[in-house]
Structures are given as structure tokens and as C-alpha cells.
Amino acid sequence: MSADAAPPPAATLRGPAVLVVDDHALMRDLIAGICKSLGFPDVDTCADGAEALRMLRRKSYRLILADLQMEPVTGLELLQAVRTDEALKDVLFLIMTARLDMEAVVSARELGVDNYLIKPFTRDQLKGKLLAVLAPDFKRRRGVSARGAPRT
């Protein structure tokens, strides 16, 4: 495989610990199941941003998939907490929302979200977003810049 070729999906989606944060149990379980079927062996779930922050203090995650609208800590508040914490700031973050709220999307972008997904979504849509989020991470770990050139 050349340095600028995209990694194969199985290699991209294999391995990192994932945290799914959603206040709806059915949605949490569905997303966790899809992640596992895509090759993520280590997927944890929780019901809100406050619980997610506690879990992030106890275990190292590479990717967070979080619902935008949760209580008591929203997805945006969780994102802000992650991005301002030196130990967590590099964790990849995907926001999920049931409605397209452009103000929230802009806020998430300003806070450094890696991508977002509108609910309901299909397995393939989630896979596409995960590939988009993880592909640059995969290249960084192998010494390849975001543009595909080897790092010097």
C-alpha cells in the first residue's frame, strides 16, 4: 500500500476503545452493536455526559460517539470538557443529533468536534463517519501527514 493510499476499512476500524454516550438505552445498544460489528472489540456505553466524564477518567478511549441533547451534561458540554482537558483533548469525538440544529453544529465545530451524524442513520452512514474520523488518525499513527505525504 502506498503512503497516500487510504487504509483498508478493516484496518481503520479495528482496535480502539470506543465510548457511546446517549440517553436512550435502545440507541446506545444499537450504536454499540454496530460498532462491534464493524470491528471495534472494546465498546462501552453510558447514559449521559456526566457519567461519560467519570468513565473517561478511569479508562483510555480513542473515540467518543455522543448524543447532542442529554442531561445533566449535554454532548456540547462533554465535548468542551474533553477538548479543554489536557489528558483527553486528542480523543476523537463524533456528535449525534436527531435534529439539524445549525447553531449547535457551528458550536460543535468551534469546540473541535471531529464529525457529526444526523439520526436516524444507517449502519453504512455510521461506518462512513467512523472512517472519515479514523482515517487521519490511522495515517498519523503510521507517520503519514493528513495530505498523505510521509512525515519528515
Topology:
Layout lengths: L8 H5 L4 E4 L3 H13 L5 E4 L2 H10 L4 E5 L7 H9 L8 E6 L4 H10 L3 E4 L4 H19 L11
Parallel strand pairs: 1-2, 1-3, 3-4, 4-5
Helix pairs in contact: 3-4, 4-5
What do you see in this structure?
- Helix content is 43%, strand content 15%.
- It is α/β, with parallel strands linked by helices.
- Strand 1, helix 2 (25-37) and strand 2 (43-46) form a beta-alpha-beta unit.
- The chain is globular.
- It starts with 8 loop residues before the first helix and ends in an 11-residue tail after the last helix.
- Residues 1-13 and 141-152 have low confidence and may be disordered.
What's this entry about, in short?
The protein is an alpha/beta fold and 152 residues long. The protein has helices at residues 9-13, 25-37, 49-58, 75-83, 102-111, 123-141, and strands at residues 18-21, 43-46, 63-67, 92-97, 115-118.
**CATH level 4 superfamily:** Response regulator
Shape: globular
CATH architecture, please? 3-Layer(aba) Sandwich
Q: What's the SSE pattern?
A: HEHEHEHEHEH
As a percent range, the share of helical residues equals 40-55%
CATH class group: Alpha Beta
What count of domains describes the coordinates?
1
- Helix tally equals 6
Our Rg estimate from Cα atoms comes to 15 Å
For the biggest sheet, the summary is: 5 strands, parallel
Would you count the extended β strands for me?
5
